[in-house]
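Service request form, structural biology core

Requester: graduate student, group of Dr. S.
Request type: structure prediction, single chain
Budget code: on file
Notes: please return the result as structure tokens.

Sequence provided:
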Amino acid sequence: MANNNNNNNNPLQLKSLNHVSLLCGSVDKSIDFYVNILGFCPIQRPTSFDFNGAWLFNYGIGIHLLQSEDPEGMPKILQINPKDNHISFQCESIAAVERRLKQMKIKYVKNIVEENGIYVDQLFFHDPDGWMIEICNCDKLPVVPLCSSSSPFNCNIPNHHLHQQILTMDQQ
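Core staff response, request fulfilled:
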């Protein structure tokens, strides 16, 4: 099989992130959280599945909730650790998200990251099963590929705004 440039840049021919699957102690509690807190919408899942779960969709990605076979054995929520595994969502207003989390009495940790005079706000909190969620305004940071144009890998950036940021930084 001949190697062409497209296969080197994308050897598995990937297109995008489709979904994240999460084990739940209670699918109903998780549906409530992801719908009413994060704004996801339940969507139809295959009727051939013979296990409890739910599919949700918004923001171009899916969340697949899977009922744990051992809900009592699920890890217990300890503390919010921003350096732990998490799913991150960008928001329009960190202040609005923080107000809403306070209103809903959801415990969270706030972080501020500074890079070259650019400040990014992050809010971390858990879903009902301890999966960590980050809400941020990370789109303030330019995407700066570490791969060169002569590299066999190409950093594909579909967002036109991000592409403009990269071009602007390259031109400096």
